[in-house]
Specification:
Helix content: 25-40%
CATH architecture: Alpha-Beta Complex
Distance between the termini: 10 Å
Number of strands: 7
Number of domains: 1
Largest sheet: 7 strands, mixed
């Protein structure tokens, strides 16, 4: 089976391919010659995930899935949430996003946060949604060099290291994306 993952993020693509294994070939947007920026104009993580998957399915006539992820920080009223990737504005920068989040969170003692990923799959004309959530906290500074996005400052509940200090396989077992991907894999293997 082959399916398109509607992303241009090489690290996300590698993470998902590693979790799925070799039974299912994951094609990137580049592989299907999609070079335009996918629309992300919805106000929710679920809405953006569906919007991206629908766009690829309608324009490229291919079975696909798209994800959207947000970091929701309790003391910041759920921010950055749906705006996690562009929290510090354009051009998008993980470093700038982390800097702004740490600055905005500095006056708060409550550092509770959660990552939420929603994957929307469109296959054979059917739409399925898979959600993964991992609870944790925001660290006061960066630790680790792995992962991407907010991984250097997110410590999952029950662990004393950040996502950026974990191997890809360790992170895939417990992460928001890993949880949603496992649901996706179970569904795909049942087809």
């Amino acid at each position: 089976m082959e399916i398109c993952f509607a992303t241009n993020n090489a690290k996300k693509l590698a993470e998902i391919q590693a979790a799925i294994g070799e039974e299912i070939l994951i094609r990137s947007l580049e592989d299907i010659d999609c070079i335009e920026e996918l629309p992300e104009t919805q106000e929710t993580i679920e809405g953006n995930s569906l919007q991206k998957a629908t766009y690829v399915h309608e324009h490229y006539k291919i079975n696909c899935f798209a994800d959207d992820t947000g970091l929701e920080v309790e003391a910041l009223g759920g921010a950055p949430g749906v705006y996690s990737g562009r929290y510090a504005g354009e051009p998008r920068s993980d470093e700038n996003n982390i800097d702004l989040l740490l600055k905005n969170l500095s006056p708060h003692r409550n550092r509770k946060a959660r990552f939420k990923t929603v994957i929307t799959l469109i296959i054979n004309g059917q739409v399925k949604t898979f959600t993964g959530i991992v609870e944790g906290q925001i660290l006061k500074g960066r630790t680790g060099v792995g992962g991407f996005g907010y991984d250097p400052i997110f410590q999952p509940l029950g662990y004393d290291i950040s996502f950026a200090q974990m191997s890809m396989s360790e992170k895939n077992k417990i992460s928001h994306r890993g949880i949603a991907v496992q649901q996706l894999i179970k569904y795909l293997k049942g087809l």
